[in-house]
Structure to design on (234 residues):
DNA sequence: TCTATAGTTCGGGAAAATGGAACTATTGAA
DNA sequence: TTCAATAGTTCCATTTTCCCGAACTATAGA
């Protein structure tokens, strides 16, 4: 099994990020990893929005997110620990991920209502 | 020739926008339309970054941008006038397009240095 | 009416995504 | 140790999507 490839942050391409997040399953996975306060395994997403995702497809989705520079994956025993690289991406493309995740929230009706006192 | 379809702004999907802009040719076309102060024709983009784009492909690219809700296309005589729908999209997904276009600028080394006077 | 121009549509080949089956790596128990 | 179980990966056939040449449509002007 070849080692996992993680691009250096300055090799991260906007095109790859947009492509990775243009898939609804990957967008879901990424937003949940980004929101989580501890690493998430791949199998944590064996179903997304009541749809079962075959594990070969899941593996591909994680690879796309990883190679786009959005997540970091590290083997921990038998499972994989995935964490987001939001902070790094924010350094390279300021405001990009917050805007996309905000839009994602708008679309799913989860927008945090601003404190309009 | 069937009439051109333009989605209503509240039917615009984040997924479609990200997909549309994840292609380098479309990203170029869109940023130039968005930056222009007058409508752009399709044939204005018959070559992008020194690469010739066949007109059947161009037509498809414009269709993807249009159906994603990013541009408005209107026949004007023999040609097509394309304008951006940035303002509408901004209303639906605040900050999204500025962030993507900012990232695009970062990647192409065209970043506008903020007036840190 | 004829010609030129600007785009669209069609259709076939190329490339990418999907998912089942087989494989690999690690753990823990017998 | 070996064996079984678990978590992911890789392979490969099928399906879907993308690309672009060729044919077509629509409009303008001579």
């Amino acid at each position: 099994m070849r080692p996992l490839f993680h691009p250096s942050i300055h090799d991260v391409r906007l095109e790859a990020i947009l492509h990775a997040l243009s898939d609804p399953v990957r967008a879901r996975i990424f937003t949940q990893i980004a929101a989580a306060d501890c690493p998430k395994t791949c199998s944590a997403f064996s179903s997304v929005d009541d749809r079962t995702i075959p594990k070969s497809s899941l593996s591909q989705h994680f690879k796309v997110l990883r190679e786009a520079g959005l997540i970091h994956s590290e083997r921990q025993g038998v499972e994989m620990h995935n964490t987001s690289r939001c902070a790094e991406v924010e350094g390279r493309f300021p405001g990009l991920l917050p805007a996309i995740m905000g839009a994602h929230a708008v679309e799913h009706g989860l927008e945090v209502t601003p404190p309009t006192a």
Q: What stands out?
A: Residues 9-104 of chain A form a domain with the Arc Repressor Mutant, subunit A fold (CATH 1.10.10.10).
